[in-house]
């Protein structure tokens, strides 16, 4: 993955531009639809941005836990202050490489269009494997126009996920209108 190419600095200008233009985006819906959520699911959104996926998930997850982790303070503030926010969503400061959650504490983790921003992909996947319970799921969603799939091949990602402790890797291309998103899905090993 070309980190240099996809490593914008999340300064105030970029964060406000992103929130104004992309905080409601179909890929968040794709992930929530693919997640097979239950009312008591414990969900982690890694790099939750403005929190759209968690707000969508809150329609189903009523007794479980919804946690968003986000490293950019202004983005976290935007998420917390969103007019459609739900009080039960927990927004925590943190990054993929150092998740502020206990071991095996979530049923499903997802990351929507953030993988290409992680500074340490192997470290982030290891952290995801630490916090997802055995048998739980991870979905990495990446839009076709932000991810260089020749730089991060499916096989390279499968290998990285397997090294981190995930299995059952498969890719589900999902499209609505002009938006094509790849849902990289896998499951935490049972042992
Ligand atoms: C393109 S936005 C996507 C936000 C949200 N997931 C969405 O789909 O609306 C990328 C987000 O990744 C966050 N980010 C950057 N580096 C990160 C890291 N190392 N770990 C987790 N999130 C990160 C940014 O702060 C930003 O909120």
From TrEMBL:
Transmembrane segments: none annotated. It comes from the Bacteria. The keyword Nuclease does not apply. GO terms for biological process: methylation. It holds the Pfam family Methyltransf_11. GO terms for molecular function: S-adenosylmethionine-dependent methyltransferase activity. Residues 44-140 form the Methyltransferase type domain. Keywords: Methyltransferase, Transferase. The keyword Transferase applies. PANTHER family: 2-METHOXY-6-POLYPRENYL-1,4-BENZOQUINOL METHYLASE, MITOCHONDRIAL, METHYLTRANSFERASE. This is SAM-dependent methyltransferase. It comes from Hahella chejuensis (strain KCTC 2396).
């Amino acid at each position: 993955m070309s980190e240099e190419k996809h490593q914008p600095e999340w300064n105030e200008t970029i964060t406000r531009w992103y929130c104004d233009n992309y905080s409601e985006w179909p890929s968040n819906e794709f992930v929530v639809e693919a997640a097979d959520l239950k009312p008591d699911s414990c969900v982690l959104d890694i790099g939750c941005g403005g929190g759209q996926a968690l707000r969508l998930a809150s329609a189903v997850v009523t007794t479980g836990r919804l946690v968003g982790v986000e490293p950019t303070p202004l983005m976290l503030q935007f998420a917390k202050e969103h007019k459609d926010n739900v009080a039960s969503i927990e927004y925590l400061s943190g990054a993929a490489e150092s998740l502020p959650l206990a071991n095996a504490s979530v049923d499903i983790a997802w990351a929507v269009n953030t993988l290409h921003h992680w500074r340490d992909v192997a470290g982030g996947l290891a952290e995801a494997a630490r916090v997802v319970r055995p048998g739980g799921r991870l979905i990495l969603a990446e839009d076709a126009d932000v991810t260089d799939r020749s730089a991060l091949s499916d096989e390279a990602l499968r290998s990285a996920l397997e090294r981190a402790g995930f299995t059952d890797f498969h890719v589900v291309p999902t499209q609505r209108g002009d938006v094509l998103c790849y849902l990289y899905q896998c499951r935490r090993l049972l042992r």
